[in-house]
């Protein structure tokens, strides 16, 4: 794997944590260039983004030991926990959605959603997002 694929992986990882990122733009540019197999790009982006989501899950899990869910103070935190409580683990399929995805992953850890279930649901959601970006891409110079 060469540096553009690693850049995509790390961008996807950072984008899935509480830090801002733009992995979709890097992914789209690499797909458009056509210099790498689409499966490799999908794998790098999905794995990086899923691991970032699981990092948020882990932060939520650790935070639950110190601060019980009943002591949440911000509206964003309360909404995320309420969504996971109401809809259950399948809400993690929407972990790719900007702004709400990171808190959903953290809330799932906070509420002790099993790590394997969280990993699968987060991964499916992240893969679907990158697959949709690839599907929507115009044919680039690498495909002509």
List the uncertain runs. none
Helix content: 55-70%
Beginning-to-end CA distance, first to last residue: 23 Å
What's the Cα radius of gyration? 16 Å
Descriptive notes:
The protein is mainly alpha-helical and 144 residues long. It is 68% helix and 0% strand. The chain is built from 6 helices and no strands. Helix 1 runs parallel beside helix 3 and helix 2 runs antiparallel to helix 3. It is elongated, with a radius of gyration of 16 Å. The mean pLDDT is 87.
Using brief descriptors, characterize the structure shown.
6 helices, mainly alpha, 68% helix
Give the structure's gist in a few sentences.
The chain is mainly α and about 140 residues long. The protein is about 70% helix and about 0% strand.
Question: What is the topological layout?
Answer:
Elements: H1 3-15, H2 23-33, H3 38-66, H4 75-87, H5 101-110, H6 115-136
Helix pairs in contact: 1-2, 1-3, 2-3, 3-5, 3-6, 4-5
């Amino acid at each position: 794997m060469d540096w553009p694929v690693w850049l995509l992986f790390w961008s996807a990882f950072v984008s899935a944590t509480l830090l801002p990122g733009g992995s979709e733009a890097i992914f789209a540019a690499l797909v458009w260039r056509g210099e790498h197999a689409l499966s490799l790009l999908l794998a790098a982006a999905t794995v990086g983004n899923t691991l970032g989501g699981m990092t948020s899950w882990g932060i939520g899990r650790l935070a639950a030991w110190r601060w019980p869910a009943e002591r949440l103070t911000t509206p964003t935190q309360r909404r995320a926990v309420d969504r996971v409580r109401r809809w259950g683990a399948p809400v993690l399929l929407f972990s790719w959605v900007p702004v709400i995805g990171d808190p959903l992953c953290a809330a799932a850890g906070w509420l002790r959603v099993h790590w394997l279930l969280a990993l699968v649901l987060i991964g499916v959601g992240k893969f679907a997002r990158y697959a949709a970006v690839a599907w929507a891409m115009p044919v680039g110079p690498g495909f002509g």
